[in-house]
């Protein structure tokens, strides 16, 4: 197979992100990426300088995709409590099974080690919390800060699911978030007639 003469940085970073997502951050090397994308290791070194630069740009690429997905989902979900739940369930689909989720935790470790990546995480927290707040704008008796509270519940439900992944992650997240909303907004529980 002949090597491609050109491949955009975005295409290379997409392949690098796929390698990290499937096998963990330690697997990313110039040699392995070269094999996966068809460019020479020397070309990749010219573009990304060193492994730290390649890893950071790959993870920034992943943050860009997550930001885009969050904005796109926030634009289409109903501005209701159910819409907030749907947004978080949709974001949960990317986690896949337990092996994929466990690899994602290794990626999170890389994010936490790098100030630029931590900053992206902090920015996403604000954007996601705001999108969730918007969903509750017309819901009576909503406590202040519901967006961050709900995002925190979501992250907790993912972690608890990971210890006993007997059901699909989306189902676990949805059940947890329904219970959370019903507990936070009791008038909603009475109106829906939920059994719990």
What is the secondary structure topology, with strand pairs?
Layout: H1 9-23, H2 30-37, H3 41-48, H4 51-76, H5 81-92, H6 98-113, H7 115-135, H8 146-163, H9 169-184, H10 186-192
Describe the structure.
The chain has one domain: Tetracycline Repressor, domain 2, CATH 1.10.357. The chain contains 10 helices and no strands. α1 crosses α4 and α4 runs antiparallel to α5. The model has no long low-confidence stretch (mean pLDDT 90).
State the main characteristics.
196 residues, mainly alpha, Tetracycline Repressor, domain 2, DNA-binding, Homeodomain-like_sf, HTH_TetR, TetR family transcriptional regulator, DNA binding
- Low-confidence segments: none
Give the CATH H-level superfamily.
Tetracycline Repressor, domain 2
**Mean of all residue-level pLDDT scores:** 90
Distance between the termini: 60 Å
User: How many individual β-strands?
Assistant: 0
State the secondary-structure class.
Answer: mainly alpha
The quaternary organization reads as single chain
Largest sheet: none
CATH class bucket: Mainly Alpha
Q: Helix fraction? A: over 70%
Count, helices: 10
Silhouette: elongated
Brief sketch in words of this structure:
This protein has 10 helices and no strands.
